[in-house]
Amino acid sequence: MKRTSAFLSVLLLLASCGGGKDETPAAAESPPPAAPSTPATGASVQAGRLQDSRTYTFDAAQLPFGPMPDVTAETDRWHGVLNGAGYRVEVPRNWNGRLVLYAHGYEGLDPALEVSDIPIRRHLIENGYAWAASSFSKNGYDVRAGIEDTNALALAFTSIAAQNNRPLPAPSKIYIVGVSMGGHVAAAAVERETQETAINKLRYNGAVPMCANVGDTELFTYAAAYQFAAQYLAGVPATAFPVTDFASKEDRIKRELWLVFPAIPTDQGRKLMAAFISLTGGPRPIAEDSFRLKPMQDPVWRRFGDDGTIDGILEKNIADTSGVVYQLDGDPALSAEEQTMNSTILRVTPAQDANPRRGDGLRWVPKVNGQFDVPVVTLAGLGDLFVPFSMQQIYKRRAAANGSDRWLVQRAIRTPGHCDFTIAEQVDAFEAMVNWELTGTKPGGDEVLDAATVGSASYGCAFTRNTTGSDDPDALGPVRKLLPSCP
């Protein structure tokens, strides 16, 4: 892929910068020989679930919020606490009767809970929509808490309005929008299993999961597989899981794979790039560019060395690399080198009871089985390393297997990072979902499973909007501006 000298300069600049907070590839002609496996019940087992021992609190002083600048629509704004979670609610005076719930992204293990405004707030209130957002009662990758607390807030909407001296009827429509982990919340919230097992039961009319983990536990398989590939290709292969001494090996691994991390790979580093592209959805625009950016790599590498319990959300390992086929080139047939890698690289299998259905509500990691019957429109970045494009392919296969794909539209955006969508792209997706739900007219989307389509130079151009507005003047950072343009 051709790059301008300016883009190379940005790569080298970002190679010295830090990052911020926050399915198996195509089958070979014959399956690889069996490789060593680590039992799921080894060192990753915890004495109880760590998440249950953590305490999360919020500062009530951060709950109040003012009117949005330069918006003429008059709104009522309410805040408070519900079941240990803070919330914000905003209702225009010319409310159209529709309510949008917003699920925020992963906040790490920070004990302080926070409420985030929905990114498309301006669009919503200027068009008569009410919106509401919860801090969730727990941080960490607690999608279960995210669903229950968001559902509870939606169910309490009319009570909150009445308490604030504005009696309102029940919403005519309720939609859910989420980003990153919140995208997992949004996708799982409309699943049949959630409808059956949630404590706070709510039926949404549509969902927009953005940069979302719509592969549920497959995301953590990807992280483990990527780590094993990096170690193997650096000549420091993992021999047991979890790799408890990964931190002491990290510098050596990077020296073997890059001359300058991650902008200038060695020959082995280029093999890792090929493995990464295969693991994350196959050849496609932007993938190689993102692989060479430190702010995109760093959040993924911070997950390496984990024990598969998702920081204590589970008691036992959930990662399963037993079926991963590692590819070091674009040919789906396994070369001799690839056969050796696949037969000798460490494999890890999950505990059978790591994430079972429960009798007291949702699973600890709620499933996205692809069983839903309301419109869902997703946004996914082609270069996202943290929640890769392959999650969209997993989601599509699951939905197709369950006959739900007729309710699914997926859109690929030409972005290098995680959740770096413009407001225009988010508004387009939201309005596409709403119009579909109201009129029955299915909107346009992108094919995600056909390799030739995904690999074409123009892939992702149809729904990428490289425009900025007053809400997101910095949405197009220096890297996105310099990415290969659409033909």
In short:
Helix content is 31%, strand content 13%. The protein is built from 16 helices and 14 strands. The strands form four sheets. Strands 3-4-7-5-8-9-13-14 form an eight-stranded mixed β-sheet, sandwiched between helices. Strands 1-12 form a two-stranded parallel ribbon. A two-stranded parallel ribbon has the order 2-6.
Can you give a write-up of this model?
The chain is 31% helix and 13% strand. The protein has 487 residues and is an alpha/beta fold. It has two domains: 173 residues, no CATH class; 265 residues, Rossmann fold, CATH 3.40.50.1820. Strand 3 and strand 4 form a beta hairpin. Helix 3 packs across helix 5 and helix 7 packs antiparallel against helix 9. The longest helix is centred in the C-terminal third of the chain and has 17 residues.
Q: Which CATH class of the largest domain applies here?
A: Alpha Beta
Q: Secondary-structure element sequence?
A: HEEEEEEHEHHEHHEHHEEHHHHEEHEHHH
Q: What is the architecture of the largest domain at the second tier of CATH?
A: 3-Layer(aba) Sandwich
As for the number of domains, it is 2
Sheet/helix structural class = alpha/beta
CATH fold description of the largest domain: Rossmann fold
Average pLDDT = 90
Biggest sheet layout: 8 strands, mixed
What share of the residues does DSSP label as strand, in percent?
A: 5-15%
Number of helical runs? 16
Specify the overall morphology.
globular
DSSP strand tally: 14
Strand order of the largest sheet: 3-4-7-5-8-9-13-14
Keywords: Hydrolase, Signal
Region (Disordered): 21-46
Signal peptide: 1-21
GO molecular function, one term: hydrolase activity
